[in-house]
Amino acid sequence: MLKDGEKGAILQRDKETYAVVPHTPLGIVTPAQLRKIADVAEKYQAKALKLTSVGRVAMVGFKEEDLDAVWSELGISPGAAVGLCVRSVKACPGTTFCRLGQQDAVGLGLELDKRYHGLELPGKFKIGVAGCPNQCAETSVKDLGFFGKAKGWTVLVGGNAASKPRLGEAVADSLSDAQALAVADKVLDFFKENGKKGERIGRTIDRLGADLFQKAIMLD
Ligand code: SF4
Question: Which of 21, 130, 146, 167 is the most exposed place for a label (fewest CB within 10 A)?
Answer without folding.
Answer: 167
